[in-house]
Structure formats: structure tokens, C-alpha cells
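Human: Respectfully, please carefully check these C-alpha cells:
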Amino acid sequence: MAVEAPRYHGRGGAEAEACKAWRLDVADVEQLFQLSEHYDSNPYHLYYQVSCAITGQLFWDGRSWDFAIDGGGTATWTNGSETRYLGCAAPACEPYVMLLTDMMSP
């Protein structure tokens, strides 16, 4: 598995600084994926959207995948035309995300 440094794609400010400080190593990424739920489609409506992402590559089920983890706890795995969607919402996910979701509860 390869894990890249976080990349910020917003307008700056406090979120940009928080993005620079957000770090996940291989063990962290593995734990986040183990804690995550799998979704049939992108669960963006249940998670906060953060302008910071960590990308990398992994080998799973005999195939190589590119992944992207959003600071809000969603992740995608992509292999060619196939995409898998994940979301980490459990309290145990908090050390691995920038902003843990409340599943958009009022």
C-alpha cells in the first residue's frame, strides 16, 4: 500500500492548515477501511465535505486500486471503470478523519 500526503483543494484559511496537519500512515488507512461501511453509491449526503484528501494505492482481492479519502470520512476505491464507496462514521473513526459525521442529524 502507498499513502500520499494530504492535498488541499479549497480557498485557504483554517481548513488549509488543518489539512497540512492531517496525516495517515498505512496502518491508519487500513484501520479506517476496516471501520468503514460500504455503500452502493457515493454517500456524500451523509458526510461533511472537506476540501482535503489523502490518496494512494492498495492491492485488494487480487487487484490494484487507487483510493481517495476525504477529510470528512468518505472514501472511494477505483479500478478502471469500477468504483467502490465507503464511509467511516463510527466513533472509532474520529482519529482518522478531519471532521467526523453526525450523519446530518439536526
